[in-house]
């Protein structure tokens, strides 16, 4: 290991020196990573929702329900489990310098969308949980939000956590092989992490897990060969949790069947190589930057000897876009307005249906309730309104995405979207933050808490470039307009009025319920209108900006080609030779890095050698 440590250190020093000459900014970023203080190794757990990720974390730590398990309530918060006694937690909020202390029983409130945070409190980005569990004496374990369907908000947080990992624990389950988004997320997350360990969960629920394991390995061999030899650990978190409730031989047998112990030992083994993992990760990060420079050098090499057909295509694309801007801008505006109005009507209709269903359900409950049961009506209604708000927020996110996709697909072709999406986020954020704040108003019975707009985000593939995803994938699934969640609940005045007027009277309870639901519907209808107004405003500005930026990009590309054509043959050959030599130096450095990284594969733990795995 000492020889490997020396080899890694020399490779990092030499490669960083090379990168510093080629791209000083990229080298500075990695130098910042190198200087970051790391007190203990960390393993970051990533994966899609509903893969049993949080259940696995709880099984590894040995504490049931420590990490909130419900896949439907994940937020953009990640939980970092560290050693400490007594058990507790603290949340880091975006607008506070000091963390907020929490009890373990509050984790669900602070780390899930169905929890209730104090008024005017923004959801935390990170929650540190201290516990005296044996595994945490060796390493920190980070449970990231599930990236269901590669939800960009959750994926961004998971990728941010992964960038600081010593190693990744990538969780899939035995219900089916890798999905394409999982493979793409794996590739992106591992750009700065060298060691990835795979856990196949829910083996107790799917007897055919060996076949799935074989299929997963085959997919890695085909689509991500770097991970073809990575260790796999089939596990059952459910059996591990059951073992904690059963004493004696029965508990021991369940522990063996869960296969959690081999994974725990593998992670502890990794933790003992913390310094080497960090060096390997730095080298992996340098390699990712060198690959980017290689791709850029290839583009420059092509530009030194342009194909006349490329010149003609670039000029035609530029002329076509400029002409469309002059002749079709009115049509695009009408399309945006039409789609926005259609989506607004659909959202309002969903709200009307949700409120009507809730009213019918609660009126039936009032008719059947006993006098004492009527006292619980305000609490039940408050919970129902919170759930309704969550459901409506999800509907709005879906509708916003449909509007944006239809408008952008009409303006830009699939091959142009990769250029457009890279800058669209910043434009939309600026458009929303530059609008004058509006007064949402309050009522003595109801409070509607506006979340203040939304952020338009492209998928990771758009930000990483066409090398990670094709342009068709960007249009098909990478376009999202997540909205900050709507918040709706009973104000204190509603409870007071209920106690005074309707606490034990069915007729008064019915009247009170209809009044409150009427106020709730009006408040949410107003909020929906404002949200769609914000969307239309932001998309209008960002669309104009995207067109201008695309025209500028085409102009720059055409100018570069024109310059190459204006040079004589000898000058073009000289420039081409210079770029070719630069690219060859980059590729030579990548080969040197790869040689060292192959040696660093010994850092990965060996998989378990149970009979089950040998059969797989």
From TrEMBL:
Gene3D superfamilies the UniProt entry points to: P-loop containing nucleotide triphosphate hydrolases (3.40.50.300)
UniProt keyword annotations, A-Z: Membrane, Transmembrane, Transmembrane helix
Annotated Pfam families: Dynamin_N
Residue stretches making up the Dynamin N-terminal domain: 43-195
Transmembrane segments: 473-498
Domain of life (superkingdom): Bacteria
Record's protein name: Dynamin family protein
Species per Swiss-Prot/TrEMBL record: Asanoa hainanensis
